[in-house]
Amino acid sequence: MSDTSHYTVTGMTCAHCVASVTEEISDIPGVEAVSVDLPTGAVTVISEGLVDTAAVRAAVEEAGYRLAG
Ligand code: 9UX
After folding, report:
1. Full pLDDT tens readout for the chain, 69 residues
2. CA of 18 to the centre of ligand 1 (A)
3. I need a labelling partner for 24 at 20 to 30 A (CA). Which of 1, 44, 56, 59 fits?
């Protein structure tokens, strides 16, 4: 069974930002699906097993954005 996690990413302003964040988070082991809502920065991650928040934060920062909270 998959797990679903919710995050908020700040700093995204265009579809390329969304693509970069999606790509970086998708590279985290165990991640099966990523959806990003540009207007709100809401990010939903579906994974096999819970993904470490630090890994998500690192991926988001690698893309050039910040994880809220
Ligand atoms: Mo373009 Mo979205 O620099 O940051 S990828 S606005």
Report:
1. 899 999 999 999 999 999 999 999 999 999 999 999 999 999 999 999 999 999 999 999 999 999 997
2. 9
3. 1
